[in-house]
Design goal:
mainly alpha; binds iron/sulfur cluster
Length: about 80
Amino acid sequence: MKRCEFFATCRFANGGLPCDAALGAVYRKHYCEGDYPQCARYLVYSQLGRETLIPELYPNQHDQARKILASASREEAGFR
Ligand code: SF4
């Protein structure tokens, strides 16, 4: 599988988020260089655009990603 299209600018992929080095390497191998469509950051990037992403979202935080997407959907519908 090819590398994630957001790799060059992704804060997590470029070491911009605090993370255990070994765990970060596992995530980068699993998500960034592999199954990136399942990455929580990718889900938000691909649906809302990179500028809407909260910076501390980690690739395995799927519940948080769903909350971000649900919140954006409610705001789009006019609910705050
Ligand atoms: S897979 Fe996720 S963490 Fe990796 S570069 Fe893409 S968006 Fe960033």
